[in-house]
Amino acid sequence: MRVTIKKTGINGEGIGYIDRTPVFIPQALVGEEVEIRIVERKNRYAIGEVLRVVKSSKNRIRPKCYIQNSCGGCPLMIARYPAQLEYKHDLLKQSLIKYAQIDPRKIKKIIPSDDVFGYRNQFKLPCAMENGELTSGLFMPNSNYFIDVKKCWVHEDGLERIRMDIMKVLNAHGLQSYQSHEKKGIRNLIVRGFNGIYQCTLVTGNDEIEGSVINDLMKIKGLYSLWQSIHTIKKTPEVFGHKMIHLAGETHLPLELDGMKLEISLRSFFQLNTKQAVKLYRTIASMVGDNKNLIVEAYSGIGAISLYLKDKTKEIIGIESIKDAVVNANKNAKLNNCEHISFICDDAANKLTYLSKKRNIDVLVVDPPRSGLDDAMLSCILKSKIKEIIYVSCNPATLGKNLAVLSSRYEVEKIQPVDMFPHTPHVETVVLLSHKKP
């Protein structure tokens, strides 16, 4: 059957309609007419597969990656980059209208990424045996089918080089992939790096990594830090295991960002697109006026946003529930001689409730996980007298739902999307809200 694609879905797929039922069709673009077959039917929707593109979009291009169709990581790589930005802008607009009735004219033009390829500074890839060799790759979406990734185009070039060098060493020593019944072997390879300096974590079973393997790995150009993570739990979304062992090199990764010095601990979150992180942090800083008395950052991580706001206020308090990140953030404040910035390990809603009763908070910055702000956090904000909120979101749907709740007390002033992940449907959004006058 033939279907005309009307819009883009949240996973980057095309959406068409058959008898008013939405059909989600990967590898199809807005405006295209495609011949499909239905592969799955649900009560309210169906999933289709493209058999042939009958009428092609002017935005369609041949993807650079040969496994783009099977990988699932870069669904928009079949479209020209300006069109990708249009799709993302539309996804954000539809979510904010649907959930919060936001005037779409408030949404500014998306800030594009300087690098469309080679932008990603970290990977966490599973390992498997292919033709007797240990390889790193990925599993096809919703399957156990492993794909050996020869080259990932969105990984930074040095990251890909060091991945290949690490795999050569592991194979030279005959290391095998993880076997769950023995709880032995290499389960995942995690590498993160900046400016030619990299940190590697081998996620394994109950293995002891031999000294000769460690020595050969540390001979790799640019390998600055080497860790092992013991992970034997069978089914879990967590990639890191319960036990961390420092094998060689330094413990933290250094990064200089816009004149700011950072040290990043192994499990701390940092934006995956370094150049766009600068644009994101500058966007946040541009929304904060000068001469503030107190700024609070919730979900503060390693403290990068707070450090970007150091000249805007007399005091900044960051709140983070992960102890390692708090230690990391306080060290980063000290590195940058920011005595007026401190970070506290606590639940965000719990600590913010306390602070908002005791202190006058000028600006609250929130950068929550994809699930957005929970009910406790929303309730705390609505009861407070916080003057302004800067909400940094990586999920338009939860952003829209949260803004709908906050709109009873706060007015949306500015909405600035930033593209952190070319070829994916993901978009980061910075929203400025101000407290409504009584």
Rg measurement, Å = 23 Å
Number of helices: 10
Name the helicity range: 10-25%
* Gross morphology: globular
Q: What is the straight-line distance between the termini?
A: 57 Å
Regions with little confidence, pLDDT below 50 for 5+ residues: none
| Main β sheet profile | 7 strands, mixed
In short:
It contains ten helices and 22 strands.
Describe this structure in words.
The protein is an alpha/beta fold. Helices cover 25% and strands 32% of the residues. The strands form 4 sheets. Strands 9-8-7-10-11-12-13 form a 7-stranded mixed β-sheet, with helices on one face. The model has no long low-confidence stretch (mean pLDDT 95).
Set out the fold topology.
Blueprint: E1 2-4, E2 7-8, E3 14-18, E4 21-25, E5 33-41, E6 46-55, H1 68-71, H2 81-100, E7 122-130, E8 133-139, E9 146-148, H3 157-172, E10 186-194, E11 197-204, H4 211-217, E12 223-230, E13 243-249, E14 253-257, E15 260-264, H5 274-286, E16 292-298, H6 304-308, E17 313-320, H7 323-335, E18 341-345, H8 348-358, E19 363-366, H9 375-383, E20 388-393, H10 396-406, E21 410-418, E22 428-435
Parallel strand pairs: 4-6, 11-12, 16-17, 16-19, 17-18, 19-20
Antiparallel strand pairs: 1-5, 2-3, 3-4, 5-6, 7-8, 7-10, 8-9, 10-11, 12-13, 14-15, 20-22, 21-22
Give structural attributes.
438 residues; alpha/beta; seven-stranded mixed sheet
